[in-house]
Amino acid sequence: MKVKISFAQIKKYLGSPIEEFPKYSTQLMNLANQNSQATRPKMVGQLSELIKEFKGNKLREWEEWYLKRYPNAIELATNKVREMINQLQSSIKQINEPLIKKWLKDLIIVKTFVGLKFQEAILKKGAELSKKDYRLASANEESKGIDGFIGSIPVSIKPDTYKTKKNLSEIIEAKIIFYKKLKDGIEVDYSEII
């Protein structure tokens, strides 16, 4: 039998106060925290390790134990999140209908195109690095798992997660260029061709 225990129930079972927050405020604070990196281990300690080190059982004991080790952490993190909230408030004031429309066009048109058509950019960069020409694969070549050529080398372009797929029956007779999506672009591994 599977039973779901909500965070509210867990807090209740552990004797933790159930805090109420204004609607959307926690989402904004989470965003500000992520952007400011206020609760990174260098600021507040490696909490997953600290909680293992803690020998007590009560919330109050944990609070005292933690604050002895990191007496300024909550204040410092509060300041960083507050500064980011101020920046978010300033940005929110600048959001109007034309900006929303511009953002949506960038998301729907530009980022979709770039996100789904970046194979050619990977080929171009590989050709540039190896000082060779490139070309996209023909339909017949694509059916064999080839995405393009750098010089005369057939290449297949795969996400780095492809490496973890063990039961693939696919046989690709090409060098594989792996890429990993990052927040601000992609990281490409050209080691098989360069």
Could you characterize what this model shows?
- The protein is an alpha+beta fold.
- The protein folds into two domains: 88 residues, no CATH class; 75 residues, no CATH class.
- Helices cover 51% and strands 13% of the residues.
- It contains nine helices and five strands; from the N terminus they run ααααααααβαββββ.
- It has a five-stranded mixed beta sheet, with helices on one face.
- A hairpin with a 2-residue loop joins strand 2 and strand 3.
- Helix 2 crosses helix 6.
- The longest helix has 22 residues.
- The radius of gyration is 25 Å and the shape is elongated.
- It starts with 6 loop residues before the first helix and ends in a 5-residue tail after the last strand.
- 10% of the residues are buried.
- The model has no long low-confidence stretch (mean pLDDT 89).
Radius of gyration: 25 Å
**Spatial sequence of strands, sheet with the most strands:** 1-2-3-4-5
Count of separate DSSP helical elements: 9
- Spell the H/E element sequence: HHHHHHHHEHEEEE
Low-confidence stretches: none
Number of domains: 2
Proportion of β residues?
5-15%
Structural class, from secondary structure content? Answer: alpha+beta
Helix fraction?
40-55%
Mean model confidence by pLDDT: 89
Largest sheet: 5 strands, mixed
Distance from N terminus to C terminus (CA atoms, Å) equals 54 Å
Number of strands: 5
Shape type: elongated
